[in-house]
């Protein structure tokens, strides 16, 4: 007769508090489970693609150029006229940087700096430049030209077809 039911009811205060706590915990775990399952085992890009159906990796300039591939060989990155001779462009969404060391000679490298994994920021002065720790890589072969990076940028596969540059 001690601490049994609340007078007039068959439920103890302890049972109500325990049930409320369990319900809150179940809701929290269910919400966390939806985030993990909805990501398809990857990052936000997979989630965005699953939700919208469109390629989330198009940049504004690529969208304006009609960046979807018609040939099934990947995604159109740019027109050859957009890549300056002696310079290049960083495509952060594709994790690639495309350079044109000399007229008509296009090269591609990973845009992830080999020092600490930052995304390279720009291409100028004949180098691909990382803003995090000022590593610099040659636009011709991706070799280290300066900074703390010790390894060159790995090459990436592109295909030049007519006036378009495509991911291979």
Give a summary of the structure in a few sentences:
This protein is an alpha+beta fold and 168 residues long.
Task: Please give a structural write-up.
- The strands form three sheets. This protein has a four-stranded antiparallel sheet with strand order 5-6-7-8, with no helix packed on it.
- Helix content is 24%, strand content 25%.
- The model is unreliable at 28-72 (pLDDT under 50).
- The chain contains three helices and ten strands, in the order αααββββββββββ.
- The relative contact order is 0.12.
- The chain has helices spanning 13-38, 44-52, 60-64; strands at residues 76-79, 87-91, 96-102, 105-110, 122-124, 127-129, 136-138, 144-146, 158-161, 164-167.
- The protein starts with 12 loop residues before the first helix and ends with a strand.
- With 168 residues, the protein is of the alpha+beta class.
């Amino acid at each position: 007769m001690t601490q049994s039911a609340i007078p007039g009811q068959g439920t103890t205060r302890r049972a109500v508090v325990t049930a409320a706590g369990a319900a809150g915990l179940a809701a929290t775990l269910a919400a966390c489970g939806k985030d993990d399952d909805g990501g398809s085992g990857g990052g936000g890009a997979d989630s965005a693609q699953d939700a919208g159906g469109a390629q989330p990796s198009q940049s504004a300039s690529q969208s304006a150029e009609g960046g979807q591939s018609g040939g099934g060989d990947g995604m159109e990155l740019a027109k050859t006229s957009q890549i300056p001779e002696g310079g290049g462009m960083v495509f952060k969404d594709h994790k690639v940087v495309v350079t044109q060391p000399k007229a008509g000679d296009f090269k591609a490298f990973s845009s992830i700096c080999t020092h600490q994994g930052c995304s390279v920021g720009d291409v100028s002065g004949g180098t691909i430049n990382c803003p995090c720790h000022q590593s610099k890589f040659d636009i011709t072969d991706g070799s280290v030209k300066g900074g703390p990076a010790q390894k060159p940028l790995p090459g990436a596969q592109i295909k030049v077809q007519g006036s378009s540059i495509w991911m291979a």
